[in-house]
Amino acid sequence: MQKSxxxxxxxxxxxxxxTTSFAYEAIPFENGGSIEGVVEFFGDKVPNDPVVTLTxxxxxxxxxxxxxxxxxxxxxxxxxxxxxENIKAGKAIPREALTVTSRKCEFVPHxxxxxxxxxxxxxxxDPVFHAFDIHASISGKEIYHVAxxxxxxxxxxxxxxxxxxxxxxxxxxxQHAYIYIFDHPYVAVTDEKGEFxxxxxxxxxxTVKAWHEALGAAELPDIKVESGKTSTIKVKFTKxx
Length: 241
What we know:
The chain has one helix and 23 strands. By secondary structure, the chain is mostly beta strands. It starts with a strand and ends with a strand.
């Protein structure tokens, strides 16, 4: 597969909550292109991930847990969300339900993406009471409050709107997670190497946006996608939000 590349330093932008006003259309096509790359931290000092002290459930969950706020190894950033802006047509949206589990007093996964109209399964693996409080954006309006009293119980809800969801636990304030809901399938979350891939894109020119819970938002405009080729990009955050 042929590759083209683009690289640009991205300054941290303001935090935003995104919805789209157009209807995405799934259409048949062949030999789409891809965007792959890495998200890196280029500031003077790489922030360390804080440790949170538990105020309850210490016998089962331990005395402390990593916050997972800054998962940065060798300057590569994990848990950044990448997506294409205002894409109107392409491959079908996946229809698998998203599961978020409370496990050892942490939400798993800590950062995830979902799709408008799909189901979300809220689950607990812990033998302690948990309450999922789900808000629109950071400290926004509460959308769902779900109480899970017994180990292994689940509650299923529908993801009805696009945008960022902020998950907390009423009984365990250190628990935190984020779900970004989209109405198109061209999204990805960086892995432990800071890498991501968005595949099967119709040829064209796109803006790639990035979001991170502690580093903010960024964008790379004018990324060209060609049939059967991979465009390689690098997103560089330079400071803590």
